[in-house]
Amino acid sequence: MNISDRSSRRRRSLDRGWHLATDEFEIGLSEFEFAIFHVAAAFERWQSDCLACCHGHSFSGTDTAVLHVIRMHERPKSISEIGRLLKRDDQANLQYGIRKLLKAGLIEKSTPAGSKKDVTYQVTKRGLQITNQYAEFRRELLVATAQSIAADVNFESVTLALNLMAAVYDQASCVAAIHRAPG
């Protein structure tokens, strides 16, 4: 029995009284959203705990993601690029994380002479060591376990579905923003 069969059977046996749902499709979507909460929380904890294994200090999962995005493709990134790559529009929170990473010596700021607008960030030598160690811990602790379920889970299909749902949520968010109740 594969994971989707088990999940479907489990879902039929649960109390399906979601206030968000009136039919089978809405129940499935509501349970999908609830699973996203679980995955997001577990992923946030994983990133934070794994970086703590490497650095010894506490950083949030978002801070960890910012560090990895800055290192991505081994080239400096601006705050707007970081936000775009993480699909985040809360620059103040991203800047707070960047300040923590700067203070820890994991990233550094570079500004072209005479420009305050073109600030970019890149990993330091220490940041490179820490992200390499993170990658090793990830392989050891996470990848092996994920490979054990690979027969039941097609990660490519799951990734495609999640990206499509992100687009659906983005579109719905735009429409909701237009119809926002006056505050």
Label the structural class: mainly alpha
How many domains make up the 3D coordinates?
Answer: 1
Q: Name the poorly predicted regions.
A: none
Rg from Cα:
20 Å
Helical residues, percent? 55-70%
The succession of helices and strands, N to C, reads HHHHHEEHH
Mean pLDDT: 88
- Continuous helix count: 7
Largest sheet: 2 strands, antiparallel
> Assembly state here?
single chain
Query: Which architecture per CATH?
Result: Orthogonal Bundle
Question: How would you name the CATH homologous superfamily?
Answer: Winged helix-like DNA-binding domain superfamily/Winged helix DNA-binding domain
Q: Assess the beta-strand content as a share of residues.
A: under 5%
Gross geometry: globular
Give the termini separation: 50 Å
Indicate the CATH class.
Mainly Alpha
CATH topology: Arc Repressor Mutant, subunit A
Largest beta sheet: strand ordering = 1-2
Work out the number of β strands. 2
